[in-house]
């Protein structure tokens, strides 16, 4: 209809119309487009380009070195180690955060008097930043006066100096991250639960399904796209993690927590090895891109099963 | 009748008791780390060297909070964060509203490819662009400035996507009527679309503010001057610099968290909508 009024009011060649439309739309699109060009697309190309060049600490005097740095990154044991650490970190954070979020969402899903208070508490950690939760947990994890060791000691479990132990540092950092991400997981899963049509539960009840079978055959399938979303976003978060590492362990001890982004930061901003850090960043980009595409692809297949 | 139903209600409440117990226990576990931080922020510093830890501030030192506002530069940090988060929020809402309007109400060549170009920026994680972006900011002489902290974040595909979702749901007849009344696009956007989209705009604003306030990596890179530190960088660096005043730093940490906690609680409804926009639309 608007096509008709437009055509009826202003007549012109298709080409003139296209120009007129472009001129009209430009002021609306250019602010975003310019910012994307400068701060998203250019850096992406520039990162790839820097990966092919060795540079001085200020990114000048670029010397073409071909794929040498990419080759270094992909074959170096350090980077493989960082990749492995990031993968482990993803595993340690995503599974517990999703499971706890699912548990808290199921617990607070029913409409009961006062349930809003509990939902608010469960989702509250979404307000905490990585700096706040790191400072909070630094205290809890303190080996000599921290609460965690106190409680473990009471329970007869051997205590640890969490953040300085090569074995425990990564799980300890993961624990702080899980706590920080619980709020996000709970919020999204609660919304997912509310999206499952009530009729499905009703018909399950008519079929005489028990609580457990209802959960297995209605709740879980209905929730699968949501759980998938929470997990994939969690994996992406994990691969992009930096703050908690920088505050709690600085990548140590013995590189046990040297996740990819921390490694990029250290190469670029502490060792001034811009080219190598850029090559690492490009590899990280490919990983995150594959994860995102996986999410879109799998989500499309799963979401429309109804 | 009523007594019977009241009795039934009471009985039902009794039946929920185990669930409430479970809810309360879970809430206690989730809140415990924050609870301990509040407790420790109220302790005298001597308490930090004693074992076992105290689970209750027997002699609460409220002056720790005053000290956080006077003897460490918390007010400055908070002001920096407030300025940064406000600028980013306003910028994101404005650029996203403009772009979303074009994508939902205007016709122009390459509309769909351009929209996909916007969406594609969501696949480029910020962390991988930090090196070139740092160099750009450095070259512009924007290190230790508010421009350096904010300008890279003034446009988001997420915001455009979120608002477009809502704009598309508005009746097309509005636009036809506005065309007949001779409204220009900007006037139509401001006087018709914006008032009808308050909830979507609020969702984006809450989301943008929370994210901006909580940023860590970028402010760490582009600020060296302690006067330009945001509250996140402030508390993280004070925590290692001010070991003798851990309690005061913890009070500062609580002060940094409180505004966001208030925001999340007050605007929970909007936040949920923003967080789930990606999940439910696939």
Task: Explain the layout of strands and helices.
The complex is a heterodimer of chains A (306) and B (282).
Chain A: H1 2-9, H2 14-51, E1 53-54, E2 63-64, H3 68-75, H4 77-107, H5 115-123, H6 130-140, H7 147-154, H8 169-194, H9 198-206, H10 211-239, H11 243-248, H12 260-270, H13 274-303
Antiparallel strand pairs in A: 1-2
Helix pairs in contact in A: 2-13, 3-13, 4-8, 4-10, 5-8, 6-8, 8-10, 9-10, 10-13, 12-13
Chain B: H1 2-41, H2 63-70, H3 74-105, H4 111-120, H5 130-139, H6 146-150, H7 157-167, H8 173-180, H9 185-196, H10 198-213, H11 217-222, H12 231-241, H13 246-266, H14 268-281
Tell me, briefly, the overall form of chain A: flat
What is the top-level CATH class of the largest domain in chain A?
Mainly Alpha
The tally of structural domains of chain B comes to: 2
| Class by alpha and beta content of chain A | mainly alpha
Largest sheet of chain A: 2 strands, antiparallel
| Superfamily (CATH H level) name of the largest domain in chain A | MetI-like
Distance between the termini of chain B: 49 Å
CATH architecture of the largest domain in chain B: Orthogonal Bundle
Structure, briefly:
With 306 residues, chain A is mainly alpha-helical. Chain A is 73% helix and 1% strand.
